[in-house]
Specification:
By secondary structure, this protein is α+β, with helices and mostly antiparallel strands. It has 1 helix and 4 strands.
Length: about 80
């Protein structure tokens, strides 16, 4: 079985996009408007980047996408 790859996604509030990076996938840096769109991009990009970097271990490429978004909630005035 292939090693599970870890990919981080963080919300960039200035650009209003999700940004994905990974220490496990050399050269990975991409963005998308939604997590669903980001995940779809990663399904294509991750195997391509691994192949480009000579990491050709098996056909399946398992990865975990961990998303993080910081927000501030405001209480209603009483």
């Amino acid at each position: 079985m292939n090693k599970l790859l870890f990919i981080r996604a963080e919300w960039d509030s200035d650009a209003e996009v999700w940004v994905a990076t990974s220490d496990d996938v050399p050269g990975l840096a991409t963005e998308a408007d939604t997590l669903e769109a980001l995940s779809a991009k990663l399904d294509v990009m991750v195997p391509e980047l691994l192949d480009a970097n000579g990491c050709t271990d098996g056909l399946d490429v398992p990865f975990e996408l961990l998303a993080r978004r910081f927000s501030i909630a405001h209480r209603q005035a009483s």
